[in-house]
């Protein structure tokens, strides 16, 4: 008759009877605490929950990657529109001042281009930190892709409220083509 593994280990001198007794007691206590394999059920539930959490993280990561790819594609389209439709500004010492992000900016333009900007036939757009002058139709197409890229100059005059009754400077109108 063959000996059990415990008896074989004891016979080979790899363990003592005291160690074997402790292991048996420990196995018996675990069996009482966990009847009918509840530990394996809890483990399976924990694994399923971990897999669901990992799937949710992966899905969120994929969504962020997709949004980033779409954003880059939009800016590539905007850059291409600007390159194809930009109006050459030429060499001049005259400049046009405008407000962008709460700061007064300036762009060098000649007098004819200045008049076209004031009339609204051309617009100023921003891409990669630089300002460009493009036709109004192109600016509208750029605005569909990214509204922050278009500098809206003509809307300022429309959105201003009428001067207050007690304003001492209400009779003095600041012209749109004021050179600074």
List keywords for this structure.
180 residues, alpha+beta, three-stranded antiparallel beta sheet, two-stranded antiparallel ribbon, 6 helices, 5 strands, 54% helix, 14% strand
Compile the SSE list and pairings.
Blueprint: H1 5-12, H2 17-33, H3 38-85, E1 95-100, E2 103-108, H4 111-119, E3 122-127, E4 130-135, H5 136-145, E5 150-151, H6 154-159
Antiparallel strand pairs: 1-2, 3-4, 3-5
**Arithmetic mean pLDDT:** 82
Radius of gyration, in angstroms, nearest whole number: 38 Å
Q: What is the string of helix and strand elements?
A: HHHEEHEEHEH
Strand content: 5-15%
Question: Mind describing the biggest β-sheet?
Answer: 3 strands, antiparallel
Structural class designation = alpha+beta
The outline comes out as: rod-shaped
Number of helices: 6
Task: Please state how the strands of the largest beta sheet are arranged side by side.
Answer: 4-3-5
Q: How far is the N terminus from the C terminus?
A: 109 Å
- What is the count of β-strands? 5
**DSSP helix fraction:** 40-55%
Which segments are poorly predicted (pLDDT under 50) over 5 or more consecutive residues? none
Description:
Helix content is 54%, strand content 14%. It is of the alpha+beta class. Among the domains are: 5-32, no CATH class; 83-159, no CATH class. The strands form two sheets. Strands 4-3-5 form a three-stranded antiparallel β-sheet, sandwiched between helices. β3 (122-127) and β4 (130-135) form a beta hairpin. The longest helix has 48 residues, at 38-85.
